[in-house]
Amino acid sequence: DVKVTQSSRYLVKRTGEKVFLECVQDMDHENMFWYRQDPGLGLRLIYFSYDVKMKEKGDIPEGYSVSREKKERFSLILESASTNQTSMYLCASSLSGVYQPQHFGDGTRLSIL
Amino acid sequence: AQSVAQPEDQVNVAEGNPLTVKCTYSVSGNPYLFWYVQYPNRGLQFLLKYITGDNLVKGSYGFEAEFNKSQTSFHLKKPSALVSDSALYFCAVRDTTDSWGKLQFGAGTQVVVTP
């Protein structure tokens, strides 16, 4: 089975801090994704990556950046955390190919105080 | 642009009764359609997908979904619901004309199965 591991289940940070969320997958997937999940809004794509060092903006990239230095690892960075970034963050990976399903980690619930 | 609508925030069903979770979509080209389930404090789990071919797709845990092109719908069904099916269900669509193949998710439908 595919394993997508997010480094923290719960995280509490302060406004203005730089926050790193880490994600690792063990199935040699080409594609990796970061979403945020908010009640009533479903999942919204922040950034995705289709190869090492490659990244593309999703629907809500403002206030975020990403890094993919190795194929198995995809990091989400909140440059200067704000309270409106309090949310559940989900990482996913998939093989290349538009019909391939995405496999998700268990999420990081991030609170910005 | 692609979009997905799940018209019901919550579906309540008694154990043993049929379960239906509705989904309609809008795409420019042809759709790839997916259903995911999310249990409390967990990530999303893939249930099934429609790519092409037979309109009735069978997936994990006894779930199936019916693709209806004329109604642009992809409803999730289970003939006999279990209490353990209580979870949050997401429909997602990918437009075949989108070169990046980004998924668009619906807002989710909470399913509550009562004993």
- Enumerate how many helices of chain A there are, as a single number: 0
Given as residue ranges, the uncertain stretches of chain B (5+ residues, pLDDT < 50) are: none
* Strand-pairing-aware structural class of chain A: mainly beta
Radius of gyration of chain A: 13 Å
What's the total helix number of chain B? 0
Through-space gap between termini of chain B: 41 Å
Question: What low-confidence regions of chain A span 5 or more consecutive residues with pLDDT below 50?
Answer: none
* Main sheet: strands, sense, barrel of chain B: 6 strands, mixed
Give Rg of chain B in angstroms.
14 Å
How many β-strands of chain A, per DSSP?
Answer: 11
So what's the overall shape of chain A? globular
What does the main sheet of chain A amount to? 7 strands, mixed
Which pair has the most extensive contact? A-B, 24 and 25 residues
Question: Which of globular, elongated, flat, extended, rod-shaped describes the shape of chain B?
Answer: globular
Q: Estimate the helix proportion of chain B, in percent.
A: under 10%
> Mean pLDDT score of chain B, rounded?
93
Structural class estimated from helices and strands of chain B: mainly beta
Helix content of chain A: under 10%
Oligomeric composition of the shown chains: heterodimer
Mean pLDDT across all amino acids of chain A: 94
